[in-house]
Amino acid sequence: MTSIRLYVNGDRYDIDVEPRRTLADALREDCGLTGTHLGCEHGVCGACTVLLDGQPIRACLMFAVQAEGASIRTVEGLAPDDTTLHPVQQAFWDNHGLQCGFCTPGFLTLIAGYLEEHPDAGEEELREVLASNLCRCTGYQNILKATLCAQKAMCGDAFDDESTE
Amino acid sequence: MIGARAKRIEDPVLLRGAGRFAADTSHPGELHMRVVRSPVAHGRIVSVDLSAALKLDGVVAAWCYEDIATLPAIGFRLTPRPELLPYRQPVLARRVVRYVGEPVAVVFATSPYVAEDAAELVDLEIEPLTAHIDADLDPVTWVDAEQATWAAGSGAELPEQDSEATCFVEEYGDVDAAFAQADELVAAGTHRVFEMDARIGRHTGVPMECRGLVARFDEAEQLLVVDGAAKVPFWNREAIAEFTGLPPHQVLVRETHVGGGFGPRGELYPEDVLVTLAAVRLRRPVKWIEDRQEHLVATNHSRGQHHRLRALVRVADGWIEALDADFILDQGAYVRTHGATVASLTASMLPGPYVIPHFRATAHVRLTHKTPAGTYRSPGRYEGTFARERLVDKIARELGIDPAQVRRTNFIPVTEMPYERPIQAMGTHLVHDSGDYHLLLDKVAERFDFDGIRADVEKRRAAGELVGFGFGFFVEKSGIGPFEGARVSVDVSGKVTITCGASSVGQGVDTVLAQVVADRLRIPHDSIRVVRGRTDQFEYGRGAFATRLAVMAGSAAKLAVDALAEKAIRVAAHRFQLSTEELDIRNGTVVVTGDPERSLTLGEIARLLEPVGAGEMKEDPGLSADGWFRSDHMTYPYGLHAAVVAIDKGTGQLTIERFIVGYDVGRALNPTLVEGQIAGGVAQGLGGAVYEEFRYGDDGTPLCTTFMDYLIPTMHEVPTIETLVTEDAPSPINPLGVKGAGEGGTSAVAAAIASAVDDALRIPDSIVAVPIRPDLLRRLAKTISVK
User: Which of A134, B353, B486, B623 is the one with CA 20 to 30 A from B764?
Assistant: First the structure.
């Protein structure tokens, strides 16, 4: 066992892990943050995407010990409080961007992380980014719609709520 | 509220990552199960040595077949044809392994990592036997008499069985008589015989959440609590009770959040039996979470059909006088819970929207040394629609008639609705309850300007591009009974709860049921709580399959809330000494119509209905009411899929430029959710049409066991789905007029894409199989450039 310290969503976690423990398992089992989901455990589906020092990474492809001292943001850390959703979460809700909700945390962290770094990303660029993750329910079009809405909201534009009328 | 684009009440929890999926349930002291799977497709088990695994620190138990030898094979939930019984799957491999991935042994350890280590220490000695992987080949001996007798479990001694598990016929009219005249008619020039040989590849649902189950025997309550079930928790409770030897009232099965269903997920698999049995035997919580590699070899595959169609067709207009179909379904190594469902649906739904006076489908269900197959979204219709619509396209092309016109000629006319086809579907009489196929074709062609699309395609073709346009028409089915129930209750604060036997696989059933109830009580739908998928909260539930819940649970909720509204009005009438006609419900309050100042909230009425007060009013205590909806027939939604595609001449890469869906669902309870179902369904259909296929080596080794080689469409591959949802043919057989929307996005995707690719290439009979692979397209495209 190795003692490590993770900073997740602003909280400090001192945990003991085997060196082979994945970051995803450490987050889920040792930190109790089960919002990060495992869909393939070989880095393709992206359900386990979290932000590591602001960068989207696959938590299934990284050992927990490699994240020692890093600042991690998971889906649980997106919303500012219990009554307000993060603009990406809100946009997913408004645009029916999820069905079963299993892949959703990975998309939310991916999009939130990317938009925070690239607020001016064009639609083609965003499509490219969204193609990193798999969703089996939605056919993706509402995920794209939600992403574009979230981008507007995060830029401070009037929120485009057309789709929910 | 019914028909509104209401936002989903499921979403806030899921968006915050607060959902509870199968892997999210944990108990102190739990054990983790790991399955040891066969590495060979066919072989005789010589020995299974568990000793090294058992010596590993943290391993608590390990089992092979001998440890569970008293268990029967897993039973059928649907379409239980008796001749299929000898092909049922044992919980752990019994003497012989029959596919790569078959559970042979199982270990239980204190952590999932240790369980995986231990599984690797289990020493399997298996003598390889020849693998039979081509269902087209003549049947071979499949199980010996001893295995057949054991698996059937009927007590009767059975002889050895071959690999054709069943062959059955669905028919009406007189196909033989029709074809007996064929020579004469063909010679006279009035008719022609057309043939189509079509193949649909093996692929399946692949939900993003793998399977999983957590079971714990609660000593205090003397109750086996099972979390992580899906789709059919009530049926699975009965099965688990039987396997574990507990009476059903000591088994509680709960579905948690479910990360997609699509058919495969939620059926009773060997692993479900092992987890629950271990919890009872070991008296410790047991958790099993499937990994993706396991999922792709262990969870039901689907499709995998080969159709040979022969049609007698009138030359003048393309009228199909008779259709004789013969198809082979590659069942894989065992027949699982679905029995003959897929073959049966393929056969009975094959005629689709067309009259076809004489019809016969001969179904062959054949075993191969591959992962067992079951249902997947639009089972039988995806396959049959592909084969049939390819045939219709061929008829149109060879007779020189507009493909839309050939379809119109053969459509069941609206004046004939409801139209009874003398054939069975899922054990019900097949009655097209309503439908105007001409109208839908007209509307879609107009909305999306099919003439304009065709003109554009021809223009681009003239400029040298390989582009094409095509479509397929289909009939779906939904809302299978026989029943579903719901209870609506109001607490003393006035808050409403719907409790029912429905299940959610992520499709939004809570929202839709809440809308139905909110509509009557005039309250916000997001104030309603929905309790479902828990066997301790409701008496019965048939499950989330066959696109049945909007119809069945929706109707039950409607009947329940209507009864609740009546009760509330009766109580208020008693209170105000008025007749019930003088009262109405507005905003969750019963008001005196002529004097709206006088009113009782639902919460106040609930308080009046405490047991003493209720007795005085001769009412049952509590403001609650049950509704039960029974149906002997399915509803039949219908639609059209169209595609515009382009093929790169150099690489053969296929681009789906446009994908159009027209779908009549009778009544859309929530159009946003209907469109969402369609878009998601198309993406899955597209996977099977172009990208997804479980391929096998000659020795039965699966070649697609990761997401690197089993290719699920990403955002790159899925175009924006253009949708027209119509409500021209409400179902006359349920109080909402609704037909299910869950599968119509998938049904005709392969048919439409193949039609468009065919149009792009214009090489007769070149596109008769899906997935349409780039190597084929490249080869075909090259022959064009040579010309």
Answer: B353
* CA–CA dist B737, B745 (Å, integer): 20
Q: Looking at CA atoms only, how far is residue A40 from chain B in angstroms?
A: 5
Mean pLDDT of the region B280-303: 98
**pLDDT band of A159, cuts 50, 70, 90:** very low
Domain span at residue B545 reads 483-630
Tell me the nearest-neighbour CA distance from B337 into chain A, angstroms.
24
Check CB contact under 8 Å for B16 and A135: no
How many Å apart are CA B726 and CA B741, to the nearest integer? 11
Chain B contact set for A24 (CB, 8 A): none
Assess whether B536 and B603 both reside in one domain.
Answer: yes
Chain A segment 82-101 residues within 8 A of B by beta carbon are 85, 89, 92-94, 96, 98-101
CATH of the domain at B154: 3.90.1170.50
Band (B546; pLDDT cuts 50, 70, 90): confident
d(CA B706, CA A94): 33
DSSP 3-state of B470: strand
User: Which residue, among B99, B103, B104, has the nearest Cα to B142 in the 3D structure?
Assistant: B99
Least Cα separation, residue B503 to chain A (angstroms): 12
> With a CB-CB cutoff of 8 Å, which residues 99-128 of chain A face chain B?
99-105, 108, 127-128
Cβ separation of B505 and A47 shorter than 8 Å?
no
Query: Which of B15, B525, B674 is the mutation pick for testing A, counting most A CBs within 10 A?
Result: B15
pLDDT in tens, B427-454: 899 999 999 999 999 999 999 999 999 9
Q: Please, which pLDDT band fits residue A157 given cuts at 50, 70 and 90?
A: low
Q: Which of A138-142, B137-141, B385-389, B648-652 has the lowest mean pLDDT?
A: B648-652
Q: How many CB atoms lie within 10 A of CB B640?
A: 28
Distance, in angstroms, between B82 CA and closest chain A CA?
35
Instruction: Flag whether residue A77 sits within 8 Å of chain B, measured between CB atoms.
Output: no
Residues in chain A with CB shorter than 8 Å from the CB of B21 are 34, 37, 102
H helices of B378-436, in order, are 381-399, 403-410
Is the same domain home to B110 and B228? yes
pLDDT in tens, A70-102: 999 999 999 999 999 999 999 999 999 999 999
Work out the average pLDDT over B667-678: 98
Does a structural domain hold residue B760?
yes
Largest CA distance in chain B: 91
Residue A147 at interface with chain B, using a CB cutoff of 8 Å: no
B676 contacts on A by Cβ (under 8 Å): 96, 99, 137-139, 142
CA atoms within 13 A on the CB side of B644: 21
Of B17, B26, B721, Cβ closest to residue A76: B17
Q: What is the pLDDT of residue A156?
A: 78
Q: pTM for the whole thing?
A: 0.97
Report CB contact under 8 Å: A164, B5: yes
Average pLDDT for B632-639: 96
Distances, alpha carbon B464 to alpha carbons B458, B655, B762, B778, B785, in Å: 10, 16, 14, 16, 10
CA-wise closest residue to B26 among A9, A133, A32: A32
Beta-sheet strands, E only, within B333-438:
358-367, 419-425, 428-432
Model pLDDT, residue A161:
46
Q: Count of domains in chain B?
A: 3
Interface check for A75 against chain B (CB to CB < 8 A): the answer is: yes
Interface pTM, i.e. ipTM: 0.97
The 8 Å CB, 24+ separation contacts for A68-71 are A68/A4, A68/A5, A68/A6, A69/A5, A69/A6, A69/A7, A70/A6, A70/A7, A71/A7
Residues B734 and B782 in one domain: yes
Is 1.10.150.120 the CATH classification of the domain at A87-160? yes
| CATH class assigned to A2-77 | alpha beta
